[in-house]
Design goal:
- By secondary structure, this protein is an all-alpha fold.
- It has 7 helices and no strands.
- It has one domain: Orthogonal Bundle (Protocatechuate 4,5-dioxygenase, Chain A).
- The chain has helices at residues 13-27, 31-37, 39-43, 50-57, 61-66, 71-80, 85-101.
- The radius of gyration is 14 Å and the shape is globular.
- The two termini are 26 Å apart.
- The mean pLDDT is 89.
Length: 102
C-alpha cells in the first residue's frame, strides 16, 4: 500500500517548504507581520522556486494544494490573511475543474 498525503505519494522537498512557510507565518511570533509587510522578502531565504513563492503570496490555494500543501495549513493561511471565503473556495473549485477536464 502506497503512503499518500493529500496529493503526493511522498511529500517532496518543495511541499515541505510550502508547508513550512504556511506554518511559520501563522504559528511563530511576529512572522505574520513580517510576511504581510513583504511576502517575497519574507520568503527570500526559503528554497522554493519564485513561481511557488508567488503562489503563496497570491493565495493560489488550489495550486498550492496540488503542489502538496497541507489542507489544514492552507485553511489557516486563508483565515490568517483574511482571504474571502468565496475566493478560497473558488481557488479549490478551479483546480478541481481543471483536473476533471485534463
Amino acid at each position: 500500500m502506497a503512503v499518500r498525503n493529500w496529493q503526493l505519494s511522498m511529500p517532496t522537498p518543495e511541499s515541505y517548504w510550502i508547508n513550512r512557510v504556511l506554518f511559520d507565518v501563522h504559528h511563530k511570533e511576529g512572522h505574520l507581520q513580517q510576511y504581510l509587510a513583504d511576502p517575497l522578502r519574507y520568503m527570500d531565504p526559503i528554497d522554493l522556486p519564485q513561481q511557488r513563492k508567488a503562489q503563496i503570496r497570491d493565495n493560489a490555494i488550489g495550486a498550492l494544494y496540488l503542489a502538496g500543501a497541507n489542507p489544514y495549513l492552507l485553511r489557516a493561511h486563508a483565515l490568517g490573511v483574511h482571504m474571502p471565503e468565496q475566493a478560497f473556495l473558488q481557488s479549490l473549485r478551479d483546480v478541481r475543474e481543471e483536473a476533471s477536464h485534463g
